[in-house]
Design brief:
Blueprint lengths: L2 H14 L1 H6 L8 H6 L14 H9 L5 H22 L5 H14 L2 H5 L7 H14 L6 H17 L3 H12 L4 H26 L9 H11 L1 H9 L35 H7 L17 H4 L1 H14 L1 H16 L16 H6 L4 H9 L1 H4 L2 H9 L2 H18 L4 H23 L5 H8 L1 H18 L6
Length: 463
Amino acid sequence: MGLRAFLSVLAGGLVLGWPAFLNGYPLLFSDSSAFLHQTMGPWMIWDKPYVYGPLIFPLHWHRLLWPVVIAQGLMLSHLLWLALRAFGGGASPGRHGLMVLVVTALTAAPFSVAIVMPDVFTPAMLLGALLLAFGRAALSRGEAAWVALLVALGTAAHLSHLPVLGALVVVALLAGWRAAGRVAVPLAAAVALLVVSNGLGHGRFSLSPYGATFFMARLVANGPAIRTIAARCPEAGWALCAFRGRLEPYGPPACELRSQSCPRDLLPSDIFLWEPSSPVNRDENGRNRDFGGRALSGEAREIIGETLRREPLAVAWDAVRDSLAQLLSNRVGDTLERRHIGESLPVQMRGFGPAEVARFEAGAQRRGVLPGMVAPFLWVQGPVLLLGAAALAWLGWRGRRDRVVLGLALGIGVGILANAFATGALSGPHDRYGARLAWVAVAGAVLLAMRAAAERGQPSGRV
């Protein structure tokens, strides 16, 4: 990479992190505390893969979080540069600057860059997989190895990425078995990393030793698991049998997704999982159940299996409904408010020293004024997303005879659908899950428009 290209990627990375600069500090979410805790001990967190925390540790070293945001911006900026070269008809500082300007000003991408969360790896994993499948010819060996490494680590950083990358392996078959293999190798590496780290840290060689509790919570929120517990208890002997007949507040119709009384970012499944007084975290005698989600994971698997046997069609319909709801949930907002920082993160920040704590406390997010500051920049994202998705579909269809064009358009569409299922159906629809990836449709439309323009400008070669 030449100097001009390097400076373009560097500038793009800094621009992509603008919400953090506006905030005066990197954006944080309650889950950020768990990822920071992964390098302070005890290292393993029952509900988080041991990947993102160790990755960002060399960047902050429990001293300063700014390098994390800068590195995330540089990673995404570089992937956009490579995508322009592979899919957009060529990369140059001017074209890269235009792409970054569109993505930065008109989409939710900067909010995934600016937050200390593995969200930025969702678009990075998608773009990287499509580069390996359909843009390999535009990459050097070193670049291909780097992209494959990013895809593997990014996939392992969040469990919802596994089905997304699995779906992209299938899409890659459009370019042949070798292309699919180039995407399958990072997927296999991510699976191996998760299984080995969980085996060493939790004593269970599993993708997600305790993840069944999350899907059970979704089945409770939708109702089928409540009916299973009512039908099988007390004979089943589950701890949740003690709450038979008292689970309705955590299921429908207590807090429907469309109800104005239900916050978009606080679903019944969230309350069931994390509320200290919920049946997951407190036993029938009112005593705290330490790490309740982990403690109940064994019976959660049994409840899930029994529910799937009893009501397969109801579960399938709920999954479709929740996936569709996730597709429509793409707004920025559920990570901006002060209340989403949580209670443990301010305590966690004390380990960074008084100077960093002061910077954290001075941030607009911590002071509760950030939503109002960013509101003028957000209204355009919805219309642009709709236009971008429509343009991507049209450009992909028009260029369907070109496997690169078809692969990019189809890969982005399938990736967004797979992300909606992996998050909405299995965990519950949240804006953050949609916003972190939906913007790639806009980037894809820009790439294909630039490619078409470049092809029109090339000489035909005819005499």
